[in-house]
Each structure stands twice: as C-alpha cells, then as structure tokens.
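Quick start: load a record and inspect it. Here is non-specific serine/threonine protein kinase:
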Amino acid sequence: MGNLCGSSAKCANASSPLASKTSLPSNTTSNSTSSSKTTHKSSVSSLPSFKSEASPAVSVKSFSLIELKSATKNFGSNSYLGEGGFGCVYKGWIDENTLAPTRPGAGIVVAIKKLKRESFQGHKEWLAEVTYLGQLRHENLVKLVGYCSEADNKLLVYEYMQRGSLENHLFRRGVQPVSWAMRVNIATDVARGLSFLHRLDTQVIFRDLKSSNVLLDSDFRAKLSDFGLARNGPTGDKSHVSTRVVGTRGYAAPEYIATGHLSVKSDIYSFGVVLLELLSGRRALDEDRGSTEETLVDWAKPYLNERRKIFRIMDTRLEGQYSKREAQAIASLALQCLHSDPKNRPSMSEVLQVLEDLKQSKDTTLLPPRAHSRE
Ligand SMILES: Nc1ncnc2c1ncn2[C@@H]1O[C@H](COP(=O)(O)OP(=O)(O)OP(=O)(O)O)[C@@H](O)[C@H]1O
Ligand SMILES: [Mg+2]
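Running the structure step on this input writes:
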C-alpha cells in the first residue's frame, strides 16, 4: 500500500507526459485490429503505437462490469488480494481465448483493480491513457489485459502475479527471506522494464517505482505494475491532472517533489531507492525507526561510498550469504542513481549494463572448469 505525501501516499505536481497524445478519437470504426478478442478498437487503433522490440500493436479488452463481477464472484472476500492507494484488487478468472469470465479454476487468473471513485481523473483521459499504455508489452511489465469503464465504475484487469509484491517479500514478517541471487535478478528485471520504457520512441516515465509496484511471478521474475495508472494519479476531483505530482514519499526524486519537474532521471532515483531496499531489507520510509533512520536514503548514503562499510547496511536476514563484490557494485550503483543532481545520475541502459555485466561475470565464475577449457 502506498504511503501518501505528508499524511497521504501520493505526492505532488506534474503533468502527464502522455496528456497531449491521448485524446480519444471521434472515429470509432476505422483501423480495427486483427485480434479476435473483444477490444476497445476505437481507442487503441488511433493512439500512437510504440516501436520497440516488443509487440507494437496489441490491444486491451473492454470488459463490462457484469463480466468482472462474474469473474470475481461479485468482488467477494474470497477473491480479495489487497488494497492500494487507488482501490482494492481482486483475483478473477477468465477464459484464455475469449477472455469471458469463467468459474474459479477454469481458464486463467487475472488481478482486477477496482478504482475508488475519487481515484480517477476525467473519463476520456483515463480511458485514453489506459488504452495507450495497454499497447505496451514487455516481459518485465505486468500485462494490462483490459479495463472496464461504466459510468463511475473504473476497473483495470491485469495479468495475475502469483507471488505478489516485492514489498511483501522483503518486509512482511514470517515470509521467507529473498536470497541474494534472487535480489540481483529482481534488480535486473526491474532495470530491464524501466529501460524498455525509457527507450521507447515515445518515452514513458514510470513515475511511481517502489517495491509494492514490483510484482513477482511464480518463478520470481519481476515485472513492473501500475505503469498505466501511476502517471495520472488520483486527484480527488475530476479536474485536469497537470498540476498533480505522482509519486511516493521515500522514493520520489527530490527535484521532482520540489519543482514537479519530471524526467526519466526521476525514475532512476526511485530505482536507486529500490536497490537500497534490496540491499538492506529496510523500507524506503519507516516512521518507526526515529528521525535519523526514518528515510532509507539519508540513513544509508554515508555507508555506500566506502567499501568496508557496506556490510553495515546489508539485510541481516541474508545472514551474510551474499557476494561482497556484488553488494559493493550494487551499493555504488545505488549511490550514482541517488545523486542529488539528476544530470549526474546514469541512464537506465547504463544501469542495466552494470547489472548484466555483474550477472555475466558471476555466471562465468560459476562455470565448471571443464566448460572454461572448452572455450
Ligand atoms: N497483477 C497483480 N497480481 C497479483 N497481485 C496483485 C496484482 N496487482 C496488485 N496486486 C496485489 O494487490 C495489492 C494492492 O496493490 P496496489 O497496486 O493497489 O497497491 P500498492 O502497490 O500497494 O500501492 P499503490 O496504490 O500506490 O500502487 C498488493 O499487495 C499486490 O500484492
Ligand atoms: Mg501498486
């Protein structure tokens, strides 16, 4: 669950980078997609498509409220998965091919987020943004399967992520600690997802990166979630969101909070905070720790620069089971990402390169001697 700025979770003051590109078309018939699924073709077809290594022209389904009620057993408590700043999330079942609701146990599972009434902006903008971002497909982004927009009811249907959020795995009591190798993989997956968004022709700024928005599948592969919602956060009214800064305290870049100026470097800062959470097992913001240790960045920064001090911030639940070399490299990367001047932060491609190199060198050292000698 997100924590709000001041006493509330979402903070601040920025324009949607997509605002100018998401006007809904008046033509509802042209350029329909070849998908056999029921889609909101009118919106999808006229929105700009993303050129990328991923499939460029996918679309999302427009669900009716009745369909989603049926998929979730009327949003019953047995289907409840959790709650965030935007509303409650439910587990639902739909047919893999037709996407029609099915009975539990048949078809595929989806996660359905039911937005609180006050959590969405103007209907057209909301719908356009959802369909626009619904075109994005990447293995490190949670897939947006569809949406429902009926009168005041706004829902989002996502691919279901079996292991839930990274936040739960890092901080919830009673959960088995995430191993070091897994943490490095998760960091790399997140970097891959962000790097994909930043490299698109129409660059997308994620804007609300935090461990609760990193979801894990059954194999602990990490994917970014909420990338469709975060850029236009809840406004509490239906006015245009251009004066709204969306982010979460503890993760949002200082210049973004101060000025509302949004750039890809804001995402890099938040990524640095997530790296610190992975290293330390501490929350970005923990009011129970007292003023000197409340903010993870402030507490950890002095230790990041000195190789010999790194162990002082490492998660004790790792019980020392981590590579010192990798921990130092990641601490140093985090420090660069957290630079107070956004210009001095690395790009996401550079970050990804560092993490992949790290993995590569580890993979090599893990190769058995015979494999080396054959090369
Ligand atoms: N696609 C999904 N698959 C499985 N569980 C999900 C999915 N999306 C969300 N959840 C679960 O639902 C809960 C609420 O998620 P939600 O995104 O609404 O809140 P949040 O990320 O904690 O905060 P915020 O509203 O700021 O994003 C989380 O605990 C998460 O584990
Ligand atoms: Mg979320």
